[in-house]
Write a structure and sequence with these properties.
alpha+beta; 56% helix; Alpha-Beta Plaits; 8-stranded antiparallel sheet; Four Helix Bundle (Hemerythrin (Met), subunit A); Beta Polymerase, domain 2; 4-stranded mixed sheet
Length: 942
């Protein structure tokens, strides 16, 4: 303690604090409340000042573990001063017989700025009433200062008894550390705990802690590569390191984790990794607590940039400062995983020596390792592959790759000792290893295995083999992308993509991906597909576009893997175009023929189309939970079928006019139970674009809907339908046409909390609008989703009729919503006349927010642009919205000055919403008293 007092003396003047508190106690002798009130501001100030010095030192030296120790030391002194006050002036009779111990994380002598304080008040066998009162006085004072205190008051006998039956109490007592009071009680507890609880129960404790760790990982997302990790509880976080120390302390009866080197559990290099990981994670955690002012344990996006700045990270070409920081974080998390595996391997080996098995003949052979046919290097040990000779990798480095291949062939898990040996042999994977024909043949067999290639690749990555064997892959190991769209690091995303591909190939995803499951068996070159899937994002983090750079990487790697020239070019093409199908499907009008012809010109063959479809599905599925939905699947299927038709020569050569005439005849025929007058009247409502792009089933449904509204005398009406497979809900709006109709509908949807995915906009021949709005589904049960859709429809009707004002309802929805300024998305507008034969295509890209679509469409209306269709696509925090427009006479916008004006005005609304914009939002287009639509003749949209 004396050494710490000297080292940490600048944090707190303990003698002065003690004297000041005692002076207050003497002035208010016998008045407990007055003493509490008098010393409270003194203790509060001392705590705040000391922690501020600790914060300053953290920024100066960067050591997280030192910061945690400083705060723990400050806490020790405060508790000691309070205890001294109690035993000297408050309850001087018997309070001095209490032993105060720190437990939990505080027991290890480390505290983060916002951590709880866990205390154990050890009582002597004979307890007086004043002892409990003394404890209460201490606790109330600590609570008044602002600390969260977890506490227990027990005798040694009670502590021992409870720790035998409660693993949480056992863990807490394992880390008990004397703070103040009667030290011999804490010493006696420690001695009896070792003898009566820990002795002989290590296997039970280890099993419980590892099970607890697995459950904690499951709750935290079961991946150490989540882009918003939990620094304390997540996989690869501080709790994992603490679990190692708990187990080591329990099994080996050590006080210092450095003793693990002496015991041969960890090498000196591994112990150095342990220290570095511990210090780094503590630095991150302490900075998080100081930054947020609370015990925040999850490294959320909005605090990552500030933490990166606090830790001194700078941007580099291709990677921002925050991405470099997070890559370091995930590399540390990976080191923690390596240490856990190595530690567990040693534990298992020692446990096996201590308990060799049952006696007798059966016992000698029950758990005996068995030879694996065809390979002398490896053996099977209880369903796990192990190495037969510790020097095998030194003699034949390619055996490192062979280990994973044999495990795959025989469906074996890995013995921890084998993976420990691999991790310690990574330096053997050099250029000769990488160029080895045998190593590459084995790797390609692992990657294209029909069993579980994702599992093997993940084990290879965790052991460090994948990054060493493919240096380009090594560059993206633990790399995160600072956005809300990607849920995992790049390497984890690529491995998950391979997992999805294997799942599709096995026929396990037929319900989710019916088309991919159908085309996969017909793909001739599955080798090239697997390689493309693994490498499609391998060039992330470079200045050059990652698709183009990735194609270059593929041209270098594929020949090494054993692929021929044709396969190499196919892989390179797939990687270069891996985003094309997704972007076309989600951001282009698939009913516009030029969209299909342009896409087909790029794809050129049915084989490429099949492979690109499957790659696209795997890529989207592996981004993260909730990213894939049935609507995206439907868009991809539509694009696939339309392109397949064109590539196979099946596109109709019949004129557009003749096809529209035939569609009208089919609609009339489908209304056969109507009167001829109604058939003629309602069929003539629809123009060519509607007849050619809307399915007959929907035309019939829409026509029934319009006639029903007319009979009811409704000026506006809505109809809803759910599509559970597509994860989309369809809202059809019938209303008098209005230039700003889509803007009002979009605003109403935003006010109702609905995210629009697509919009089809049509005008009837009597001047009404028939708009179909597709919103993302929210509830899994149809009844719940129908109620929600009805609420959205009602909101649309209320806004259109003027019963509710759009600016007010959007403002209400936005109230209390935190504005997302974490992600810098530069507003961008692209205007093209080359993407459609009939329309000008306007694409906007910017940061998403409530009411954005309503404002953008309002501006387009103000600019006298007629919106024919819209595609609304959200990628995390970013939106890419595409509008197919013409001017008011149905022509493309070709004037360059006008295009520049459109782009400028759109950029003006793509940032923060202004009061001026809110004022421009229309309240509605139909007065509440109007009961029936007034037909207005209007030229058809073409």
């Amino acid at each position: 303690m004396a050494k710490l007092d000297i080292e940490y003396g600048e944090l707190l003047d303990v003698a002065a604090l003690k004297a000041e508190c005692e002076a207050v106690a003497r002035n208010h002798a016998g008045h407990l409340l007055d003493i509490r009130a008098g010393v409270l501001p003194i203790l509060k100030k001392a705590s705040a000042d000391g922690r501020e010095v600790a914060r300053t030192r953290l920024f100066a030296d960067g050591s997280g573990i030192d910061c945690a120790r400083r705060i723990s030391w400050i806490q020790d002194q405060l508790i000691s001063v309070i205890f001294n006050l109690v035993v000297t002036h408050v309850y001087p009779d018997n309070a001095g017989q209490i032993g105060v111990a720190a437990v939990g994380g505080y027991g290890r002598g480390t505290l983060a700025p916002g951590s709880d304080i866990d205390l154990l008040f050890l009582m002597p066998p004979k307890i007086s009433g004043n002892m409990h009162k003394a404890v209460e006085f201490m606790l109330y004072l600590l609570w008044d200062i602002g600390f969260k205190v977890g506490h227990a008051t027990r005798t040694i006998d009670e502590s021992i008894r409870l720790s035998k039956s409660d693993m949480t109490i056992r863990t807490a007592i394992l880390e008990a550390r004397f703070v103040c009071g009667r030290e011999e009680l804490v010493t006696e507890l420690d001695r009896r705990f070792d003898q009566e609880v820990a002795n002989g129960t290590a296997p039970e404790f280890i099993a419980a802690k590892l099970a607890e760790r697995d459950e904690r990982h499951r709750k935290a997302g079961d991946s150490r590569y989540l882009v918003e990790p939990n620094v304390k509880e997540g996989k690869g976080g501080l709790r994992d390191l603490q679990t190692l120390f708990w187990i080591a302390k329990y099994k080996y009866h050590i006080r210092d984790a450095a003793d693990l080197v002496r015991l041969g559990v960890l090498s000196r290099h591994e112990w150095h990794l342990f220290q570095k990981a511990d210090d780094f994670l503590w630095a991150v955690r302490c900075h998080m607590h100081y930054l947020t002012g609370k015990p925040e344990e999850r490294l959320y996006f909005d605090i990552q940039p500030e933490i990166a700045r606090s830790l001194g990270y700078q941007p580099r070409p291709g990677l921002s400062a925050v991405e470099r920081f997070m890559k370091h974080y995930f590399l540390v998390a990976k080191d923690v995983g390596d240490l856990t595996r190595i530690f567990c391997a040693t534990l298992e080996e020692q446990q096996a020596k201590a308990a060799p098995g049952l006696t007798g003949v059966l016992g000698r052979f029950a758990n005996r390792p068995r030879k694996i046919p065809g390979t002398p290097e490896f053996i099977e040990d209880r369903g796990r592959i192990a190495i037969a000779d510790p020097d095998i990798f030194k003699r034949d480095p390619v055996s490192i790759m062979r280990l994973f291949h044999v495990a795959d062939l025989n469906g074996l898990e890995f013995h921890p000792d084998a993976l420990k040996a691999v991790t310690r042999s990574l330096s053997l994977i050099d250029n000769d290893f990488r160029e080895s024909e045998e190593a590459n043949r084995l790797f390609l067999a692992i990657l294209t295995s029909r069993k579980d290639p994702g599992f093997m690749l993940r084990r290879m990555n965790e052991a460090g083999v994948l990054g060493r064997f493919i240096p380009e892959f090594g560059k993206i190991v633990s790399m995160m992308q600072f956005n809300m769209y990607h849920h995992y690091t790049v390497d984890e995303h690529l491995i998950r993509t391979v997992e999805v591909l294997a799942e599709i190939e096995k026929g396990k995803s037929e319900e989710i991906h019916p088309l991919s499951a159908k085309v996969m068996p017909s793909i001739e070159d599955r080798q090239s597909l697997y390689v493309a899937v693994l490498l499609h994002d391998v060039a992330k983090g470079r200045q050059e576009d990652h698709s183009i750079a990735g194609a270059k990487v593929a041209r270098k790697l594929c020949p090494r893997f054993g692929l021929n020239a044709k396969q190499t070019e196919l892989v390179a093409w797939l990687i270069e175009q891996h985003l094309l199908m997704s972007m076309v499907a989600q951001t282009r009008d698939l009913h516009d023929r030029k969209t299909i012809t342009d896409f087909a010109d790029t794809v050129q063959s049915l084989e490429r189309l099949k492979m690109l479809l499957v790659l696209t599905v795997c890529d989207i599925r592996a981004v993260g939970p909730g990213v894939w939905n049935g609507w995206k699947g439907q868009l991809l299927r539509t694009l696939y079928y339309e392109t397949e038709l064109l590539l196979s020569g099946g596109f109709s050569e019949v004129s557009r006019k003749e096809r529209a005439k035939h569609a009208a005849e089919m609609l009339t025929k489908s209304l056969g139970d109507w009167s001829q007058k109604d058939q003629k009247t309602y069929t003539k409502l629809h123009y060519e674009p509607y007849l050619l792009s809307v399915a007959l089933e929907d035309q019939v449904r829409h026509t029934h809907f319009i006639r029903q509204a007319d009979k009811a005398g409704q000026a506006l009406a809505t109809m809803v339908r759910t599509h559970s497979f597509h994860a989309i809900t369809e809202i059809t709006v019938l209303s008098p046409d209005h230039p700003r109709l889509l803007s009002i509908i979009a605003g109403a949807c935003a006010a109702a909390g609905a995210n629009i995915a697509d919009a089809q906009i049509f005008t009837t021949s009597d001047g009404r609008a028939l708009d179909t709005i597709l919103v993302n589904r929210e509830f899994p049960i149809d009844e719940d989703e129908m109620r929600r859709a009805a609420t959205i429809g009602k909101m649309i009707e209320d806004v259109l009729s003027g019963r509710k004002r759009l600016p007010e309802v959007i403002a209400t929805r936005s109230k209390g919503k935190k504005k997302n300024k974490t992600f810098p998305v530069q507003p961008h507008v692209t205007i093209s006349n080359a993407l459609s034969n009939k329309f000008t295509v306007i694409e906007v890209e910017c940061l998403d927010r409530i009411g954005l679509l309503a404002e953008i469409t309002a501006v387009l209306s103000d600019l006298s642009l007629d919106i024919h269709s819209a595609r609304i696509t959200t990628f995390g925090e970013k939106v890419i919205d595409t509008f197919y427009v013409t001017d008011l006479v149905g022509q493309k916008v070709t004037n360059e000055n006008r295009q520049a004006s459109i782009a400028a005005q759109l950029k003006g609304v793509m940032g923060e919403q202004s009061d001026e914009l809110r004022d421009r939002m229309p309240s509605g287009i139909i007065a509440p008293q109007v009961q029936r639509a007034v037909p207005v003749q209007k030229k058809a949209k073409v």
